[in-house]
Amino acid sequence: MGKLRDPDCNPLQARAETVLTDYAARAQAASGPRGRKPRRRLSGRNIMIYGTLFVVSVYYLLPLWVMVVTSLKGMPEIRLGNIFAPPVEITFEPWVKAWAEACTGLNCDGLSRGFWNSVRITVPSALVSIFIASVNGYALANWRFRGGEAFFTILIFGAFIPYQVMLYPMVILLREAGLYGSLTGLIVVHTVFGMPIVTLLFRNYFTSLPEELFKAARVDGAGFWGIYFRVMLPMSLPIFTVAMIIQITGIWNDFLFGTVFTRPNLYPMTVQLNNIVNSVQGVKEYNVNMAATLLTGLVPLAIYFASGKLFVRGIAAGAVKG
Amino acid sequence: MQPSIAIRDLTLAFGAVEVLHDLNLEVGQGEFLVLLGSSGCGKSTLLNCIAGLLDITDGQIFIQGKNVTWEEPSRRGIGMVFQSYALYPQMTVEGNLSFGLKNAGLPRAEIAARVARAARILQIEPLLKRKPAALSGGQRQRVAIGRALVRDVDVFLFDEPLSNLDAKLRADLRVEIKQLHQQLENTMIYVTHDQVEAMTLADRIAIMKGGSIMQLGSPKEIYNRPANRYVAEFIGSPTMNMIEGNLDMQITPSFSAEGMSVPLQTYAFGSDAASGPAVFGIRPEHVEAGEGAEAMPVRLDAAVDLVEPLGSDTLVRARAGDRNLWARMPGQPDLRPRQPLRLGFDPARAHLFRLSDDTRL
Amino acid sequence: MRAEAAATGRGATSPPPSAAPPRRLLRNLTAKIAAIPMVLTALVVFLGGTVWTVVYSFTSSRMLPRAEFVGLEQYDRLWSTRRWVISIENLAIYGLCSLVFSLVIGFVLAALLDQKIRYENAFRTILLYPFALSFIVTGLVWQWILDPEFGLQSIIRGLGFENFTFDPLYNPDIAIFGILIAGLWQGTGLIMILMLAGLRGIDGEIWKASRVDGIPAWKTYLFIIVPMMRPVFITALVLITSGIVKLYDLVVAQTGGGPGIATEVPAKYVYDYMFGGQNLGQGFAASTMMLLAVAIVVIPWAMLEFGGKRRG
Ligand SMILES: Nc1ncnc2c1ncn2[C@@H]1O[C@H](COP(=O)(O)OP(=O)(O)OP(=O)(O)O)[C@@H](O)[C@H]1O
Ligand SMILES: [Mg+2]
After folding, report:
1. Whose CA is nearest to atom 19 of ligand 1?
2. In this structure, is residue C137 part of a structural domain?
3. In chain A, whose CA is at the least distance from the CA of C148?
4. pLDDT of residue C310
5. Is the CB of B198 under 6 A from ligand 1?
6. Residue A56 covered by a domain
7. Span from the CA of B39 to the centroid of ligand 2 (angstroms)
8. What is the pLDDT of residues B294-352, one digit of tens each?
9. Which residue intervals define the domain ABC transporter in the entry (chain B) (predicted)?
């Protein structure tokens, strides 16, 4: 580029200099505005934009802040002070208590039980539902068969049906299968109700892959599973991650299925949390409650902050489904 | 006379990337200037700077003698037409034409008069009540031009207005734009990467590359005396034949390359021509083949390599030694590959460029 | 896969006389077997379950489902139950407010973020994080913040405004707004993200054209951009609506339906009657009403969406 600016090889510039009209000369002498338009950093517009965003951000961050500071205070400090104030004396006792000692009904072994239940529910549910949905999506996208789209349409409409409508039939089905109240039963429930969105996600992804890939593999004689495991899976890591994010946060945050389809010893963390905080007996220990709440929110928050853009992509995909 | 648009030392950078470098340009009153260049050379960027849609990094811009460097686009006295038309989809054609005027607080009667005039000029009167979605591409583009027209300004800016249209429509609208210019007589700056559009529309063409103007001149000048190798190869189709060799200015000037020597007494040399490695260029339409070759001062023996019949004329790639030369032959000569072919040309129509910096000799 | 479809089509029109039927069934057999979970879910749970519930809403089921049809009796009873009527009122208020506020706030925030600002990512992360949380967590935090004895009200009183009252969770008249605040806190980020994607999808030349026309930014948004974003608004509307009808966990956590029955919602009514009150018929009728509410929004939307696509 520097070469081009050499007057020798840029005839225009040579020309422009010789052709400078007296008008232009005058203009240059008079100078006037030149270069970048000066902008004040604190223009009214900027103050409005950043001001609004700042205020909104405070509103959004406030609950997180309140959770954290409350959970680090002792009860006397909470009774006297202000819920927004940082703790004068930091104590981790509420966390310990929430984790290991808080009571629900007769059990007093804290949220840890709910945490482990949630892990036992979330991990297999997410894996099973993603495996099944990805195979469905793959079958729909690459192995078009009669009626496939019709079932898929029902599935997508199903995503809009309030769960309450299908709750009782599901109870009956599980009871008939002898799975009601068991971990397996809950895994089935999560797989069934997670199917629309995850299937949609995979179907759209596999449809977007070049068709030649699939055809080439078929010509090479690979079958349904061969193509799935050796061609499709290795290419789908990002979409599997997105599906993982959706399913893990969704299943971890579930409350309704947890209450309906499990017994108290299997209650997931959300259900147990609600029972701890909203139990009517005993003195309210707000700091323990907030520590428990924060503990429950920790897993999805960690996933959210760690996954960033992928999370957004996941909810965008979910939003399309509705 | 004061220029309609004057650009002084314009520099524009996006962050650390400098897209326009120290650019100077003057456009006369009523002139039709075309900015031509390959993709990404900064044509749109330059146009947006003139329109005030981009904040320039350094330099000044004058429109009708007024320094508008810091002025808002709407107050620069320009109208602009975009590649994607950028019509407001939810408004009727009439709404599209009048929205800006209404917003500027013009009296109703004045708005109606201007819209009517624009509609008459562009022949879109029957379409006024329609929405853009119900228009064809050509009609949309006319409405887009109309939106610039109603602004009643001295300067029109076009950013590839025809590139979303099919070839036939493009040719039709090209003629219409030319007529519009003749009728309105206002200044127009027109961005395109289509050289036919540039040659047919322009009073002057500015050829851009990498954010600088390589040459500014009338279409004839650009075609006949390209200032450097880039311009020479950019203009004309098929592209100019280029042969690398040596220029000898001793006694009688001549150009020699492997297996050929061309006397250059009739060539109009620039002032700084000197002996040394050079590139010799000749356009295919200036290469005569067959019988016509015999009348030419320089002749070569070659063999037909490839034939591309175009109907009105025929393009021939001929092989002379280990060199390929394109020639354009009139009509539809009957040629077969490997058939011997005489080529000839007039060195007066050739172009010579210094090899080291590609400038014209 | 287009070839695949074509092959099936050809098979249907001109089948080789003898072998056609079994082959069509066996074609892609593995794929069909692999899709069985989807087919079962769609047919048995979604379609079958829904039909079953609707049918049984016309029966006198109490403790157990019982196929004794009583016509619209359950619905009569439903609409004469004060708790149900309040639930519907609450849902209407919550729904309307949350629709309006989510759309307006979501759009405004997206427009602010779209101004080529610094720290866009940080702001976006902050506005969206509540969406990752469980409604239970959201409900419990806001229960704590809105606690009149310790929360917002006591703090503002502490600042000297002795008579300041803001105790939505203890005042039946405004309790539903306490839930609305929490609901908006959790849900607006999603709408904002949708709107932002919509804004980013708008042709930049539209903005240039409006600047050349001298139209102020707010007018461009109002008269040009918002009309152009209609599909995004409709998607958002459908999303918010189906979310509103499902509103359950938040209420359970934040107020438990109280004070009294001031914040009852239909989904909670269904749950309580089905699993607590041992009155299945009521639960079925109520859930059928929920289904109806969703259908009123989703079906026209789907027709618009898919009908529109077919036209091109
Ligand atoms: N907002 C931006 N940020 C950074 N670089 C940019 C931006 N806009 C354009 N550029 C760069 O500036 C250069 C010139 O872009 P410009 O759009 O002016 O090209 P153009 O000549 O109009 O090309 P085309 O014919 O493809 O429209 C390109 O290299 C482009 O990558
Ligand atoms: Mg461009």
Report:
1. B40
2. yes
3. A83
4. 47
5. no
6. yes
7. 7
8. 888 888 888 999 999 998 899 999 998 888 899 999 888 888 888 898 999 998 899 99
9. 5-235
The model's confidence at residue A317, banded by pLDDT at 50, 70 and 90, is low
C-alpha–C-alpha distance, residues A321 and A157, integer Å: 9
Please report how many Cα atoms fall inside a 13 Å half-sphere around the Cα of residue B121, on the Cβ side.
24
Ligand 1 atom closest to Cα of residue B37: 21
Strand, helix or coil for residue B87: coil
Q: What's the pLDDT score for residue C155?
A: 82
Phi first, then psi: give them for residue C285, nearest 5 degrees.
-60, -45
Ligand closest to the CA atom of residue B53: 1
The DSSP secondary-structure symbol of C159 reads T
Q: In this model, does residue A20 exceed pLDDT 80?
A: no
Cβ(B44) to ligand 1 under 6 A?
Answer: yes
Q: Are residues A149 and A271 in the same domain?
A: yes
Q: Are residues A14 and A75 in the same domain?
A: no
Q: Which band of pLDDT confidence, cut at 50, 70 and 90, is reported for residue A13?
A: very low
Which of B89, B90, B103 is the closest to C214 by Cβ? B103
| Domains in chain B, CATH or no CATH each | 5-231 (3.40.50.300), 233-354 (2.40.50.140)
Same domain for A180 and A310: yes
Domains held by chain A: number: 3
Q: Is residue A242 part of a domain?
A: yes
pLDDT tens-digit series, residues A88-112:
888 888 888 888 887 777 777 888 8
Question: For residue C235, what are the domain limits?
Answer: 78-311
- Residues in chain C closer than 8 A to B89 (CB atoms): 227-228
Q: Which segments of B204-259 are extended strands (E)?
A: 204-209, 212-217, 241-248, 254-257
Cβ pairs A/B, distance under 8 A: 84
Contacts of C297 (CB under 8 A, 6+ apart): C237, C238, C241, C242
Question: pLDDT tens digits, residue range A236-263?
Answer: 888 888 888 888 988 999 999 999 998 8
Is B141 in contact with B161 (CB distance < 8 Å)?
A: yes
Cα–Cα dist C155/C146, whole Å: 11
Tell me: do A236 and A286 sit in the same domain: yes
Kindly give the number of the ligand 1 atom that is closest to the alpha carbon of B48.
18
Cβ distance of A1 and B212 shorter than 8 Å: yes
- Same-domain status, A147 and A50: no
Total domain count for chain C?
1
Considering the domain boundaries, does residue C36 fall inside one? no
Say if ligand 1 is within 6 A of residue B45 CB.
yes
ipTM of the complex: 0.86
For residue A32, the chain B residues in CB contact (below 8 A) are 60, 67, 69
Residues of B in contact with C215 (CB under 8 A): 74, 99-100, 103
- Judged against a pLDDT cut of 90, whether residue A36 lies above it is answered with no
Q: Are residues A26 and A77 in the same domain?
A: no
Confidence band, pLDDT 50/70/90 cuts, at residue A1: very low
> Domain containing C189 — which CATH number?
1.10.3720.10
A236 and A129 assigned to the same domain:
yes
The token pair that represents C304 in the structure block: 């618009």
Q: Which residues of A touch B62 (CB under 8 A)?
A: 27
- What span, in angstroms and rounded, lies between the C-alpha atoms of B316 and B339? 12
Full residue range of the structural domain in which residue A231 is found: 112-319
Share of chain B above pLDDT 90, in %: 57
Amino acid C109: pLDDT: 94
Cβ-based neighbour number of residue B166 at 10 Å: 10
Q: Tell which A residues from 4 to 23 touch B, by Cβ distance under 8 Å.
A: 4-6, 8-13, 15-16, 19, 21, 23
In one letter, which amino acid is A134?
S
- A37 domain residue, yes or no: no
Q: What is the pTM of this model?
A: 0.85
> Is C283 inside a domain boundary?
yes
Q: Where are the beta strands (DSSP E) in chain C?
A: none
